[in-house]
Design a protein that fits this description.
- This protein is an alpha+beta fold and 582 residues long.
- Helix content is 48%, strand content 23%.
- A hairpin with a 7-residue loop joins strand 9 and strand 10.
- Helix 11 packs across helix 15, helix 12 runs parallel beside helix 13 and helix 13 runs antiparallel to helix 15.
- The chain is flat, with a radius of gyration of 40 Å.
- The C terminus is likely disordered.
Length: 582
């Protein structure tokens, strides 16, 4: 038997071609994505990280794909403008809660803090990616810089406001001109009465009038007219003398004109005013104010004198002003509806969160109480766990209460139950309650309260809530070893309470928005909890009491929060006040 090597060769060209085509297709697709001016990204919902970010992210938001991936979703979300974060969250909820068969992309416009250029307007269009079980696994988004478009829209809005001002100015000018016209007519009537016997003066008057003056006979045929009728009507005077004025009046105004002339004929000496629409010789329609007087019995005039004043420009300005007014009213109604919907949504959300949370709070508190009664060492981990659950549930419950109170305040439903309150006793009680908080954080809590303070009429629970919120705010922003001081004084018919800390302080820009809902200072956003509602709620409650709240601060100089309440008579029964009542 001969020995040797047997080889077999197989042509796999056809198998390799699809692989090559697939690689080329993927390469083309990647080139398209990386050449796009928009930023394309893919967010993995399972890991909560970015799977892909196109290179155009450097132009759109100032961050490279690597930088954005390193930032992570939460820190990237924090780069959105504070006023836009709530809308962003609502948009995400709407996206992830839609049915898979809908597959509708969700778009939103908001402001993003560009790494180098500051806040820029962007348009973000997102779509969900589903696996074979119709479970969303990723979000694919397209981010586009629309700052130029937004600025153009702002310029257009300013231009519209400018046009509105011009319309108002023109209306005022027309009103002034109209008043001037009335004075001229009055003067002319006086002249006509004094010189009715002089036909020559009458003809001179109508020839030099700015308006068109015509004289009609008993059959309402044109007998004479001033030369200005040619400018008003576009016809020569000789042409008009063979025609009836009714031939030029708009069909819709014919009944009104006929009624006016009938009234003139039947009531000698009466003056009748009408606004009519007539057709110029060139076919265009114009508006006039017609003022007629029956002088048929006057032996000198022996006719019906009608004065025509062109009001076309005034009519057009009035119609334009009415359209602008209707547009403004519609926009105002839409804005009021949107504000009402937002307040209703907040109230409903707080209610839905609080309903399942109540049994959690009560159960966790019961569990902590029972575990504290058990002396066994093995229960200590469970006690710590139960304590953490109870503390977290209580904090969440407080946040929901703040959210609900704020929603009630926005809808005018927040109520006070006023009664005589011993402020000094209340402040000392609050100081005792929070002393352990300051001690645990290595802070000094100092009382600078006077020996006595007058009674005030206030809601004791809400007043305590205001002071606690301001003290907790001071604890949050005062470092270890810092000092918080509580003061109170009576001055000029008001009671003033202030909480001073030695914390980081704030710039003037931060102070301007400090009492706005959901606002948090820059160094509070990453390391501290809360929704940014505490100070806004304090402001609402203080103002509901008829008082005022303010802050004095500087960067690196700490902050002093103060509020004042009016000193009212504490006598009388308990009273309930609602936001908006006086």
């Amino acid at each position: 038997m001969e020995k040797g090597i047997v080889t077999e060769a197989r042509d796999i060209t056809e198998h390799k071609r699809p692989e090559k085509a697939l690689r080329e297709s993927e390469e083309r697709f990647r080139n398209v994505l990386e050449s796009s001016l928009d930023m394309i990204y893919r967010l993995n919902l399972e890991t909560g990280t970015y799977d892909y970010v196109s290179p155009s992210s450097r132009q759109v938001i100032g961050y490279s794909p690597e930088e954005l991936t390193a930032l992570g979703v939460e820190r990237a979300r924090a780069l959105a403008h504070p006023d836009d974060i709530q809308r962003l969250d609502e948009n995400v909820i709407q996206l992830v809660t839609q049915a898979p068969e809908q597959g509708i992309p969700q778009g939103i416009e908001y402001r993003f803090n560009h790494k180098e250029l500051g806040y820029r307007w962007v348009s973000d269009t997102r779509s969900l990616i589903y696996d074979e079980r119709n479970v969303p696994v990723a979000v694919v988004g397209n981010l586009r810089d629309i700052t130029k478009r937004k600025r153009t829209e702002e310029e257009l809005e300013k231009y519209q406001e400018h046009l509105q001002e011009l319309v108002e100015e023109r209306t005022a000018e027309l009103s002034k001109a109209n008043e001037q016209l009335k004075r001229e007519i009055t003067e002319r009537r006086q002249a006509e009465k004094a010189l009715r016997a002089k036909e020559e003066y009458f003809h001179a008057l109508i020839e030099n009038s700015q308006d068109a003056i015509v004289v009609l006979d008993r059959e309402l045929k044109l007998r004479d007219a001033s030369m200005s009728i040619e400018r008003l009507m576009g016809y020569k005077l000789q042409e008009l003398l063979r025609m009836s004025l009714f031939e030029f009046i708009h069909p819709d105004d014919l009944p009104n004109a006929a009624e006016a002339f009938t009234e003139l004929v039947q009531n000698p000496g009466n003056i009748v005013r009408r606004e009519l629409c007539y057709q110029h010789k060139d076919g265009s329609w114009h508006h006039v104010e017609a003022i007629g007087q029956n002088l048929l019995d006057d032996p000198v005039v022996s006719g019906i004198v009608v004065n025509f004043h062109d009001t076309t420009e005034r009519k057009r300005a009035q119609e334009k002003l009415e359209r602008l007014y209707e547009s403004e009213m519609k926009l105002r109604q839409q804005l009021e509806e949107e504000m009402k919907k937002r307040a209703e949504f907040t109230r409903a959300l707080a209610h839905e969160l609080k309903t399942p949370l109540t049994p959690v709070v009560m159960s966790s508190q019961t569990l902590v109480s029972q575990l504290q009664e058990e002396p066994l060492l093995m229960l200590e981990p469970l006690l710590r766990l139960a304590t953490n659950i109870s503390r977290g549930a209580s904090n969440l419950n407080s946040r929901i209460d703040e959210l609900l109170d704020l929603a009630r305040g926005e809808m005018g439903m927040l109520k006070l139950r006023t009664e005589p309150v011993e402020v000094l006793a209340l402040l000392r009680e609050v100081m005792d309650d929070v002393a352990t908080v300051a001690s645990n954080q290595g802070q000094s809590l100092v009382s600078r309260l006077p020996h006595s303070l007058p009674l005030i009429s206030a809601d004791r629970t809400r007043l305590r809530q205001i002071v606690l919120n301001l003290l907790n705010n001071a604890f949050k922003f005062t470092p270890h070893g810092g000092r918080i001081t509580l003061r109170a004084k009576e001055d000029d018919g008001k009671l003033t309470i202030e909480i001073k800390d030695t914390g980081l302080g704030m710039s003037k820009e931060e102070q301007e928005q400090l009492f706005e809902p959901y606002h948090r200072v820059e160094h509070d956003r990453e390391r501290l909890s809360g929704l940014g509602l505490g100070l806004a709620l304090c402001k609402t409650l203080v103002e509901l009491h008829g008082g005022r709240i303010w802050v004095q601060s500087g960067v690196g100089k700490g902050s002093t929060f103060s509020f004042s309440l009016p000193l009212q008579s504490s006598a009388g029964e308990q009273e309930t006040l609602t936001l908006g009542e006086e």
